[in-house]
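User: My collaborator sent over this chain with a note saying "see what the structure looks like." That's all I know about it. Can you take a look?
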Amino acid sequence: MNANGILGATQHKLATEHYSEITAMFRRGYKAAKRRNRYKGFEMVVMARRYAGDLRQELGLRNRLWARGREHVESYGNSPVIVYAPEHFTDEELQVVTPPEHLTNKDLALDPVIAAGRHGNFFDAAYTAIVGKPDWMRRFDKIHAQGKSLPKAGSGRRWRELDSSMSSDALLMNIFCTPAVAASVAVRGVLGVDREATPVFGWRARVQLAPGRFDRTEVDMRWGSLLVEAKLTEGDFQTRASTIVEGYRDFDAVFERELLPRVELRTARRRTATEFAEEFTQEWEDVSEDGDAAREYQAGIVARATEAESAVAGYKGYQLIRNVLAAYAEECSFCVLHDARRPDLRERWFQVMAAVKHAEMRVRCKVLTWQELAPLLPAELQEFLDLKYGIVGPGRVASSVEDWFKI
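Assistant: Without extra context I'll predict from the sequence alone. Here is the result:
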């Protein structure tokens, strides 16, 4: 066998061993994607799902171990998500953290750490700072979108989005609410923030639409002259119909619309009266890994269903487009903070960034990974990010989940 033959056999073996899930997804959807000449876009969707799924699986395992001794519940399903609840120190824990014996109970009550309690989803110093700032604490007002499908909290409290171990907003606040981080010259330097400022979370921008109308879009964080979009396990940056995106006043002033990634948005269809119910329901069913005939049959069903759906033109990366327009209106910079284990998100951001018309605006668009930020943070916070999220600086290896069982 020549060198090319050996290389081909090796690649086939690796694909079989490590990417069986991706192969199965390609088999189910390749024909329909090729029919619409969108093979590349379909490939990116499959890889994005794989990256996001792998990260969710790792975070799920890490948080299942991190949650030991902390108040939490697990969501229902095959891949449970850990959701934490705020808690107060028990009498036994107070004895551990009690300062010298001559301090009174009143002194203990005034201690900020004891007064704040703790929250399993947060670094203790960050949570203490959050409780001490009403503006930051208001981020806990946002109710968890799937809260009703979670086990009830023992206190009866409704679940919040920041309680979820998969929350990118919680990760963002864990870092930038920790004392000394916002004041760090190194952190400000890498993000291009030229002066000391207090981070504002959930900042409401004013992106102008038609005259007299504004989109009060929510930006994850504003820090001085910097707007930040944080991502962790989210699938993508959302899509929107062209009529909505092109309705922004400055859209054509900022972007070359022909260079932006496009998509056809299809609406779910209703079954026709002459259609077999079995065929209608099989459009979304999974098929067995070894059922080639079944996969081919289902691919045909899906292809016919897709053709029956109505479609409107749309744009990919809507959150990115909207936030770039917000940065343009506010004369700010805009940075995407994402996990290095999600290269698909960086690729999407580069596609949108390449469509920005003017170099002056393009250089205000930035990208940074949590891993690149980690070495600039306090040592205890770095340890927290390593254990709970698997986030460590470039060149370092995250702590092995298996090692936790030896602790």
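A starting point for your reply to your collaborator: Residues 246 and 252 are 8 Å apart (CA to CA).
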